[in-house]
Here is the input.
Amino acid sequence: MIDRRRILDHTMTLLAWLSAAAMLLLVASMIGYVVARGYSALSIDFLIEPPRDSMTKGGIMTPLIGTIQLVFFAMLFAIPVGVATGLYFAEYARNDGFTAVLRLAIRCLAGVPSVVFGLFGLSLFVILLRLGSSLLSASLTLACLTLPLIVTASEQAFLAVPEDYRFASYALGASKWQTIWKVILPTASPTVITGIILSVGRVAGETAPIMFTGAAFFTPGIARSIFSEVMALPYHIYVLATAGTAIEETRHIQYGTVLVLLLMVLGICSVGIYMRSRLRRRLRA
Here is the structure.
């Protein structure tokens, strides 16, 4: 007699493996395509020289440092606010209609196109608050873009902490804040870091929000003030692809810039994954 459940189990397992293999093949193909076209541009000079001759020569030092500045300031604003908001929803908010509406609004914001955040940043930070097109305006816009992801990841991390941990802390005489600081935050930190890692990757690769709020077509040097315009790798790639420089002699610069951006995001994610693994091992010990 044919065991239909076993056949169904094997079929679904095969489909899962095929789906994973197809995804890995797609990612490998994309990375291989970029590497094949951009590896020739990689060198120390490419990383430490600014663009020159209408960005058809030179390197990417200015947009590379600008991207690092944008990510740093965006996460500087987003991480405290996002983690604190997630903590509020998990530990302090009541389960009423108002809280449900707030959660729904945050979930919806996570799906809003990035260009909408760019127009929001243009209206609020650049025009209304008169911060101008600057590193500060672009960073605040990127912080707003990544807040829903950090809030959601933080809330789920805090809710996943077993209630027994809280009860044990209260039984030992700890206050609510002491329980949060000494028990909940350390236990939830690996998952929170995962959400932050995903946010960093998204912030580093966004173009639409910064092109309205602070990204410059070209600047001779790096931004030395938060009120200065800044070059960034994503917008630099967009400019190279659309400003008449997409000829064969300079195409390697475009793909070299893309490759550096990919390596930068992968490097940041790798550091975050390593930190998360160390925290998990420490907690288990």
In short: The mean pLDDT is 87.
